[in-house]
Structures are given as structure tokens and as C-alpha cells.
Amino acid sequence: MDMKRQKLLEGHSDMDEGEDRISKLPDSLVHHILCFLPTKSAICTSILSKKWRYKWISIPNLDFRVWRSATSEDVYLETDRFMEFMDRVLLLRDMSKLKKFYLVCDGRCDRTRVNAWISDIVKCKVEELIVCSKSQVPYSPFLSPSSIFTCDSLVRLTISMLCDLKLPTLIHFPRLKLLRLMHITFRDKNFSEEFISNCPVLDELSIEYCTWDAMEDFIMSAPNLKTLRIQAPKGVIRINAPNLTHFEYEGRIAKEYDVHGFSSLVNAEIDFCMYLEDKDDIETRREELGYAVIKLFERLSSVRFLKLSFETHKALSLVDNLNARLPAFNNLRYLEVSYICYSRYYKPLLCLLEISPKLKSVNFTHGFGGRLSENGIEVVLPPIVFSKLKKVTFGSFKGDKMELILAEFFLKNAKI
User: Fold this and answer.
1) What is the mean pLDDT of the segment spanning 46-73?
2) Sign (positive/negative) of CA torsion 243, 245, 248, 249?
3) CDD domains given for it (predicted)?
4) Is residue 201 one of the residues assigned to a domain?
5) With bands split at pLDDT 50, 70 and 90, how would you rate the model's confidence at 15?
6) Cα–Cα distance between 214 and 212 in angstroms, integer?
7) Can you tell me the distance from the alpha carbon of 180 to that of 206, in angstroms, rounded to the nearest whole number?
8) 3-class DSSP assignment, residue 303
9) Interatomic CA distance for residues 27 and 191, integer angstroms
10) Chain centroid to CA 208: how far?
11) Number of domain units in the chain
């Protein structure tokens, strides 16, 4: 028998004897392995042996997003047990550094205890913190511990819950790169200025489904910001973000757009919620609203990808002499119109097609409806040369007359 085969057999013999090789691994490697298990399963390894009893107390990730049973008969009892479990976990865990802490709770969780858990996590120099509530009943208010606002270790922070957010006097996030806030009611008039100015390396900001109770204006300066998603208030929108590459905006037409530093912008998605406006008010303020829309679109001319809602086309239709007022979109390669686009708002579409000489793809995600007419007279589409256009997509194509007219229009004018 050769030596190589003999060694393999010896190794096989050792395994048959039940040698515990995992326990011989360095603690750092064991902790890394435990990170791939659900947190509850990782903690359950404490029953394996005395040696494993406290292995879990230094794992760098704690994930409590899925803890409620789908078949639970008593959700209140289950919540009480979960809170007691969380109290024990954080009491027994050592103070070693935490990379990630994820928590999803609901209205049955005691907010005082939730705040205490967050305070304990902050002391562990956590880098990524996600706290979400599925409750449909708002905390009134949810008093986030002030320590979270001076956590100098945080790199990623997500808070998604129906709660009031009132800022403390001191805010300091020297390492925070990603901030996502959802379903929050802002109680500070200067939230955007005070909060974001204390996040010097912020790279991504999302503010969605929030209520701007005390805020009429959104004002921010973020020199390192690359991604901004915002459902904004209707006051003044003032943004200075010289390195922004991705911009998503949803909301009513603001009173004023004072936007700077969008020259690096690559992707933009704009959804003006015109359905929230009073029809009579739209006609009364037509010129004012149209001017505001143009001020924003002037800053989007560098984009390669542009996604517009049907409501945004309605907003653009408020602008008189649109072709002369919009700058050329010389970098635009992909244009998407989300939701069904109705033919009575065809002029903004034609304008965008005409001022985008390098356009390669157009996508009507929900098709095109209605009749192409003005005052009952059918309109003939003017010729536009598409020297680069390669693809036009109609979602939910039904073969309506308007869709056929548009299809013929693109086929006739596209050169590729």
C-alpha cells in the first residue's frame, strides 16, 4: 500500500472516531462560520458542549428580521418571549465590535425596550443598523435614543417605522455612507440641513413615504453624495450635490428648484404627483408651475437614462414653448415612460425625442392610449430623424390606433 493511500485511510479512520475538527478552528473562523447561520441557530450552538457555550457571544452579525412564527396562536405571548430572549442575548453578549444588527418588530414590542436594545448595540460600535416596524399604528412618539445620533462607527443606517423623529442637539455621523429613512414624521423644520450636514461622507440618501410635518423646504449640501431618492415637500428644494450620479424624485411640483452640481448625473427618475393638485389651482398657477418644472429639467440634461411617469408628462405640458426652453439632452441613451401615456400629452414626448440626438431606446412600460388629436382634429406627427435609435418597446401592446401610429412613426424615422 503506498504512503498516500495509507494517509487517506488514516484520516478516514480519524473521522470515524468522531473527531471534533470544527472546535479546533480559531475563534475568528468559527465566528465567521456562525455568521452564515440564522442568529437563533447560531445561539443554539451553546448547547453543543461547554466549549461551545459562549462561542456565539462574539459573533459580529445579529439578525432578528424573521422571528415570528407563521402558525403562532398567541402573538402577544410570542412577542413577550421574543423580548425576553432579546434582553438575555444582549445581556450575555460581550462588548466586541458588531458589524450588523437587523431588527424587525411590530406594535406589540415595548418601545422602551427597543430603545434600550439600540443603545446597547451602539455601544458595540455597530457598523450597519436596520430597525423596522411593521406596525400600522404609529409610536407616539418613538423616542430614538440620542446615542444613535452620535454613533461614530455607523456606516449604514436604515430606519423604517411609523414614528416621530425629533433631532437631539448633537448629531455626529463621521463614517455614515448610507442613510435610508421611511414612514417617519419629521418634527424639525431644519431637519435636512442639520442632519445631512453632519454626515460628511454620505454616499446614498433615501427618504421615502415620510411626512414633512414641520418642513416646507428641503435644503441639503452633500459633496460626496452619489445617490439621492426623495419624496419631497412642496416648498423650496435646494440641493448641492456635485458628485450625484443617480437621482429619483417623487412629489408635487415644488415652489422652487434651486439645484446645483448635477453635471455628473447619469440616471434620473422623475414622478410629479399631479393627481394631488387641485385642477383649478393648476390653471391659476400654470405659469408658476411650468417655470418650476423647467428649472428642474434644466439640471437633468447630462443624464444617460431618464425615466418619466405619465404625470410628469402632464407637468411638462404646462410649459409653453417647451422646445425652446429645454436644453439639449445630448447624453440621453434610454428613455422610459412609466404607466400608460395618453396621446393628449404627446407634445412633451415629441420634444424629448427631438432634443435627444443619441437616443438608442424608448420604452412605454404600459403602452400608449387615446387618440392623437387636438380640438377633434387628428394630428400628424412631424418627422424626427433618429440616427441612433435601435429599440422601441410597448408594454401591454394592444394594437390600438395610437400605438400603431407611433410604431409606424418610429419605423419610418429610425435610421438603424
Assistant:
1) 71
2) positive
3) F-box_AtFBL13-like (cd22160)
4) yes
5) very low
6) 6
7) 5
8) coil
9) 43
10) 7
11) 1
CA distance 43 to 386: 62
| Amino acid 221: pLDDT | 93
Asked, for residue 189, whether it belongs to a domain, the answer is yes
Buried residues in 310-321 as b, exposed as e (16+ CB within 10 A):
bbbbbbbbbbee
The partner residues of 104 in beta bridges, in order of sequence, read: 132
pLDDT digits (tens, 9 = 90+) for 304-331: 999 999 889 889 988 988 888 999 999 9
Kindly state the cell numbers that stand for 237.
428644494
CA distances from 12 to 2, 16, 22, 78, 135 (A): 16, 6, 16, 45, 54
The Cα–Cα gap between 66 and 105 comes to 9
pLDDT in tens, 77-132: 888 988 998 898 888 887 778 899 999 887 788 888 888 999 999 999 999 999 98
- Specify whether the CB–CB gap between 23 and 31 falls below 8 A: no
Identify which has the larger pLDDT, 273 or 376: 273
Residue 159 belongs to domain spanning: 60-213
Measured CA to CA in angstroms, residue 306 lies from 203, 270, 363, 409 at distances of 21, 8, 11, 21
Cα separation of 122 and 111, whole Å?
16
CA distance 250 to 312: 10
144, pLDDT greater than 70: no
**101/128 Cα distance (integer angstroms):** 6
Candidate ranges 35-49, 131-145, 293-307, 359-373; pick with highest mean pLDDT: 293-307
Task: Say if 126 falls within a structural domain.
Answer: yes
Cα 7 to its chain centre, rounded Å, is 55
Grid coordinates of 75: 402573538
- H/E stretch holding 113: helix 111-123
Query: 292, 273 in Cβ contact below 8 A?
Result: no
Q: Which pLDDT score, from 0 to 100, does residue 166 have?
A: 80
Residues 6+ apart with CB under 8 A from 267: 245, 246, 247, 303, 304, 305, 306, 307
H-only helix segments in 245-300: 279-284, 286-297
> Would you say residue 415 lies in a domain?
no
Amino acid type, 198: N
Q: Which amino acid is at 232?
A: A
Residue 109: strand, helix, or coil: coil
